[in-house]
Amino acid sequence: MTYLTSLTSTRVLRAALGAVLAAGLAACSAPGPNHPPGEPWDPYEKRNRSVHEFNKNLDRSVIRPVSRGYSAFMPDDIETAVSRFSANLSIPQAVVNNILQGNMRGATEDTYRFLVNTTFGLGGFFDPATELNMPAATEADFGETLAVWGVREGAYVETPIFGPSTERAYAGRWVDLFTNPLRYVLESPESYIPPSASVSATLTQRGRYGDSIDGVLYDSADSYAQARSLYLQNRRFKLGGSEGDAYVDPYEDPYGATYEDPYDDPYAE
């Protein structure tokens, strides 16, 4: 009975989310029949390049110097612990998305990892789950959920502050603001802990791996095209390569929010 109730609730939630997003997602553009397969679909390139320049200027004047100062001031062990804590807080959101995708194995594995790190890892500041050889976190997001539901990728877009995305991923990002159960459990001022930890983790990664990120943003002949190519290749690879070549580049998503790999998602998706 509990399983049936859960299944029914999942279907109702999926239907509700689908209805809310239907109008916006219907507007996701698609390339014409003559568009070369595998090539970026970027009908908004002129606007995107303007946003890209804004993001670079913001990084140059604010994010890069602040992250360098933060990493220089904060001990490495504390930075690492806070990054782990931030990653642990994002797991409940991944559990929800795995359930919506019908990936119950991923949801179960993420739940176990969250419980182990929250209890034995002091809230996630330590990572005993990895030491116990438990599966890595799935990092499922609602953009991925939409892909599983058959929503097309849409055009490439660069968004202020958050950087590279697609129309589908951008819509998913907005929904992800509401899919983490911790959002409804924590009260003020505790509710400010997850976003604060995420900002700290972002500054840590930007400070630690600044040279690699700078290589993409400031040393490329065309940093916009470079960022676009790397984001699309890696996003498609994460989704199983169904919409592009299964290619992993060491500079995955140079605007992502949190990540563990040194070149994985330095700003946010």
TrEMBL record:
GO terms for cellular component: membrane. Pfam families: MlaA. Residues 1-22 form the signal peptide. Residues 242-269 are annotated as: Disordered. InterPro entries: MlaA. Belongs to the MlaA family. This is Putative phospholipid-binding lipoprotein MlaA.
